[in-house]
């Protein structure tokens, strides 16, 4: 007798057989997304500057029965990006999804207290690095004639501001503008390009930017959801955007901030 309350077959995993590249995959949002992609059946390539962190994520994926490839990469270096894409396609034979998540906060200070080198570093990683990644990812998709999905990490600061954020905000505001053009250029080839704009997320990078956790209290008080975001809140959205459930979405910058930005508009 069949138990009617029990499933009669396993639910197909949404990214089974797909190859996903995650930059900044060693900690925070990138790690959460990488684990989510792997749970849904994807083979995951992990890019990051710190070998120990991406190797740890790869081990956790392997322990859960998945497949991951860590590749040390500095996304601000064009040769590194070229080598990264070559390594992914040599190992897995293809690329289906790229989550360009690597980024830095930089010197969070008033503009007169920042150097031109501070500005250049933030732009090199947060904006130029994503431009380079998309360029070579799209070339890979076009060579495969298979379409593809690109997701980038932007910021709620494209809709607001914090004192000290001039360089960081410039990098993310330009990123939101840039993906609209790229989405138009390649939608006809089956390539979707979107951004996720996280709110205040409890990540090691965010924790490292403040003196102590009390600094987050005003953000929590101002967020209708009543808490900081977790890495998984963004990772799950990055997963969804990679699936066919989001097949009609491109050129968008999606706020995922627990209502923080809306509350600021009241």
Q: Give me the strand/helix succession.
A: EHEHEHEHEHEHHHEH
Main sheet specs? 7 strands, parallel
Please tell me the overall pLDDT: 93
The assigned structural class equals alpha/beta
Q: Biggest sheet: strands side by side, in what order?
A: 3-2-1-4-5-6-7
GO molecular function: glucose 1-dehydrogenase [NAD(P)+] activity
EC number: 1.1.1.47
Enzyme class: oxidoreductase
Protein name: Glucose 1-dehydrogenase
Description of the structure:
It is a single chain. This protein is an alpha/beta fold and 266 residues long. Helices cover 44% and strands 15% of the residues. It contains nine helices and seven strands, in the order E-H-E-H-E-H-E-H-E-H-E-H-H-H-E-H. It has helices at residues 28-39, 51-63, 78-92, 116-144, 166-186, 204-208, 217-222, 231-242, 260-264, and strands at residues 19-23, 43-48, 67-72, 97-100, 148-153, 191-198, 253-256. Strands 3-2-1-4-5-6-7 form a seven-stranded parallel β-sheet, sandwiched between helices. The longest helix has 29 residues, at 116-144. It starts with 18 loop residues before the first strand and ends with a helix. The model is unreliable at 1-9 (pLDDT under 50).
Keywords:
alpha/beta; SDR_fam; 7 strands; EC 1.1.1.47; 15% strand; disordered N terminus; 266 residues; Glucose 1-dehydrogenase
Tell me the layout of helices and strands.
Blueprint: E1 19-23, H1 28-39, E2 43-48, H2 51-63, E3 67-72, H3 78-92, E4 97-100, H4 116-144, E5 148-153, H5 166-186, E6 191-198, H6 204-208, H7 217-222, H8 231-242, E7 253-256, H9 260-264
Parallel strand pairs: 1-2, 1-4, 2-3, 4-5, 5-6, 6-7
Helix pairs in contact: 1-2, 1-8, 3-4, 4-5
């Amino acid at each position: 007798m069949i138990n009617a309350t029990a499933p009669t077959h396993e639910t197909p995993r949404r990214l089974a057989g797909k190859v996903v590249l995650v930059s900044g995959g060693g900690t925070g949002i990138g790690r959460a997304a990488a684990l989510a992609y792997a749970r849904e059946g994807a083979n995951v390539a992990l890019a990051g500057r710190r070998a120990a962190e991406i190797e740890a994520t790869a081990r956790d994926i392997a322990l859960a029965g998945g497949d991951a490839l860590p590749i040390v990469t500095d996304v601000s270096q064009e040769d590194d990006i070229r080598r990264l894409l070559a390594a992914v396609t040599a190992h897995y034979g293809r690329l289906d999804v790229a989550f360009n998540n690597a980024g830095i906060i930089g010197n969070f200070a008033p503009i007169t207290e920042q150097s031109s080198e501070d500005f250049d570093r933030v732009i090199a990683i947060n904006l130029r690095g994503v431009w380079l990644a998309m360029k070579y990812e799209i070339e890979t998709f076009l060579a495969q004639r298979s379409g593809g999905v690109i997701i980038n990490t932007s910021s709620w600061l494209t809709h607001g501001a914090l004192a000290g954020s001039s360089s960081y905000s410039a990098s993310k505001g330009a990123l939101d503008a840039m993906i609209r053009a790229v989405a138009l250029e390649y939608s006809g080839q089956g390539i979707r390009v979107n951004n996720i704009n996280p709110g205040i997320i409890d990540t090691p990078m965010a924790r490292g930017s403040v003196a102590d956790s009390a600094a987050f209290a005003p953000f929590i008080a101002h967020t209708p959801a009543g808490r900081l975001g977790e890495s998984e809140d963004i990772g799950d959205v990055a997963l969804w955007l990679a699936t066919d459930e989001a097949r009609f979405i491109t050129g968008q910058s999606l706020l995922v901030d627990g209502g923080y930005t809306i509350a600021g508009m009241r």
